[in-house]
Specification:
The protein contains 1 helix and 4 strands; from the N terminus they run αββββ. It is of the alpha+beta class. A 4-stranded antiparallel beta sheet has the order 1-2-3-4, covered by helices on one side.
Length: 61
Amino acid sequence: MASVLSDIVCDDLWQVSRQQAHQADPQDASDRIAECPLLLGKGYKRDIELRNGIDLTFHHY
């Protein structure tokens, strides 16, 4: 039987994961990787802060 998670629960799981994110490059604090919460599957989100307030996020699940 499949589990059903609300949007709020999913967002909370990702928020915790992003708080525990690590730097992809130790010399670049603007490039961080957050592992996908186990309840949601496998993979990661990679957040890169670009200039002028532009953010780039890669999703790999």
